Amino acid sequence: MSSLPIFPGSVDALGQPSTLGVMGGGQLGRMFVHAAQRLGYFTAVLDPDPTSPAGRVSHHHIATGYSDAQGLKQLAALCAAVTTEFENVPADALAALATSRPVAPGAAAVAIAQNRIEEKSHFTASAGVAGVTCAPYAVIETPAQLDAVPPDLLPGILKTARMGYDGKGQVRVGNMAELAVAWADLRGVPCVLEKRLPLKAECSVIIARGWDGAITGFAPQYNVHVDGILALTAAYEGNMPPALAQRARAATESIASHIGYVGVLCVEFFVIDDGSDDGALVVNEMAPRPHNSGHYTLDACDVSQFDLQVHAMAGLSLPQPRQHSPAIMLNLLGDVWFDAAGQTRAPDWQAVLALPGTHLHLYGKLEARAGRKMGHLTITGANIAGVTAVARQAAHILALPGLDALG
Ligand code: ATP
Ligand code: MG
């Protein structure tokens, strides 16, 4: 459905400011809530966890399952518009909300992001226009498709079509025998086998698209993953060859426009060696929401990815963000709370915060677990050399991985 602009400060019949809703109560929801509240909105979070990071800072927290009819009814009754903070919200729940409220992004776009098979078809149809392809792949849904896998896709990575994130649901396979075992271990669920590519680099592009089709966004970020999880994002002028950056942006805009996307969209790319100086772009996956690789925008840009999420869903104009400082973002996983012997420890925040240009974000999660995203640290400064030097010091204090990639 089309939207009515919901201006900040507008009140409902009871004299209350408009309420914006979000499906999901994780850290992305929490940062959305902060951005919405800054504009004077009330907020509502739907998440079954009573201690969810976003639920604890929101005016309203509906602690039901994502498909719970009562919970969805309550959310629709409270909210002028609804967004989502993670892609595994059931698309049916978004479709149900959309019968009475503007929902951005919509169920159809989220459904594509939930399924790697549909996502790849969508990329082929949309990013292809900008000369960007997917990694060579095969769909495996039946034993016959398994047997018919072309040998040149090996060594490859078998990925479940659904519910993968942070490297979960992925198995590296070297030959047909390993592939058969891996698919059986994944209980024969629908998968894609992707050829393992020699990555020169990884990057992502975050844009926002409004109800009127207007697009704004950020320059590509350079990302470093460790064990399938984002460890570091570097955002500064010159982090990518300009022609490559332009193509990544064009592909992202095409991916969004092709499906009339509304909201914040992140598209992840690989840069692979094709013999050219710049390398070639391969599109990996999309997130129908703000993304971990865009957290630096909170501290290094005048408008953040969460501001754009609020503006897009509420029909407010979408300003062109300006990055005012080069930045490096370091992810803080639960591992930071454990020493090499597995004993819990208190990270030395005092030493980190004594370093210039450090911005610490902790998500208020009650329990640290290895691999769990607990917070992030963004470092800003006058130039990337200075930012890198501080990032190295912080990473050393907290024993963080990924800094080697900066050279
Ligand atoms: P996310 O948390 O970003 O949703 P995910 O679990 O969905 O992650 P992918 O983004 O598909 O997984 O893969 C995670 C990481 O594994 C990539 O960022 C990349 O470092 C590596 N990887 C994935 N596919 C390939 C490939 N075809 N060739 C080489 N490396 C790959
Ligand atoms: Mg990924």
Describe the structure.
The chain has 407 residues and is of the alpha+beta class. The protein is 28% helix and 25% strand. The chain folds into three domains: 85 residues, Rossmann fold; 60 residues, ATP-grasp fold, A domain (Dna Ligase, domain 1, 2-Layer Sandwich); 208 residues, D-amino Acid Aminotransferase, Chain A, domain 1 (2-Layer Sandwich). It has twelve helices and 18 strands. Strands 5, 10, 11, 12, 13, 14, 15, 16, 17 and 18 form a ten-stranded mixed β-sheet that branches. Helix 1 crosses helix 10, helix 3 runs antiparallel to helix 4 and helix 5 crosses helix 8. The chain is globular and about 65 Å long. It starts with 18 loop residues before the first strand and ends in a 9-residue tail after the last helix. The mean pLDDT is 93. Magnesium ion binds next to strand 15.
SSE order and pairing:
Layout: E1 19-23, H1 27-38, E2 42-46, E3 60-62, H2 69-78, E4 81-84, H3 91-98, H4 107-113, H5 116-126, E5 133-134, E6 137-140, H6 143-147, E7 156-160, E8 170-173, H7 176-185, E9 191-195, E10 199-209, E11 215-217, E12 221-226, E13 229-235, H8 242-257, E14 263-272, E15 280-287, H9 297-300, H10 305-314, E16 327-333, H11 349-353, E17 358-362, E18 373-380, H12 384-398
Parallel strand pairs: 1-2, 1-4, 2-3, 5-15
Antiparallel strand pairs: 6-9, 7-8, 7-9, 10-11, 10-12, 10-14, 12-13, 13-16, 14-15, 16-18, 17-18
Bound molecules: adenosine-5'-triphosphate (ATP) and magnesium ion.
